[in-house]
Amino acid sequence: MKVFLLAAGLGRRLLPHTASKPKCLIDIGGKPLLSWHVEKLKSLGIDHLIINLFHEGEQIENFLGDGSKWGINIEYFYEKELLGTGGGIGNALSSIGNEPFIVISGDVWTDFDLSNLSLNEGSLAHLILIENPLENPEGDMFLDKGKVNSSGKGRSLTFSGLALIDPQLFIGAKTGKYDLWQEILLPASEKGQVSAEVYGGYLVNINTIEDLEKLDAYLLEE
User: Fold this and answer.
1) CA-CA distance, 52 to 61, in Å (whole number)?
2) Is 157 helix (H, G, I), strand (E, B) or coil?
3) Which domains does the chain have, with CATH numbers?
């Protein structure tokens, strides 16, 4: 199975840490966040990683290289302008192929076992959701009987940044910049094609300096 790592963001909320480096190269728990990602993927037997790049993207490529030292094949897709979470994936469809692939937000750290991801019958995407954090009290979407919707039915929850997606969803998608939820997952959810589960384990979306410091302390204690 292939993994797409979203790593093109500017990381403005983590300045000054991201003034001269991408967010995923910030040291957390004694090593760059990106190292945590790659080591975990390798431990799960995943051997193909695709990464989109923009802000200081060459630093990520210089750090990981072709992936040989990690025992994993790595491909890079540079963006001349930010393409968004959907457009970034759409730009790399030629390498993603026809099989379902995992999407990981590069600024998320979690102990979730990615090997548990699977597509439910009739679904073309499966999302990992979390309880709404203080900074997102209204959530991103609703979950009812295992299916995602935007109509207010069920529990209000927040997207974690982890998903398993069938590339069929991108057939006919526009090129350029677009959002994964608005342009791909939302229309699919209206057809009942997006399932989800709620994860209650450790998961941090590193959006602030406080998030960074808390995660760093947690990992150093482990």
Assistant:
1) 10
2) strand
3) 2-221 (3.90.550.10)
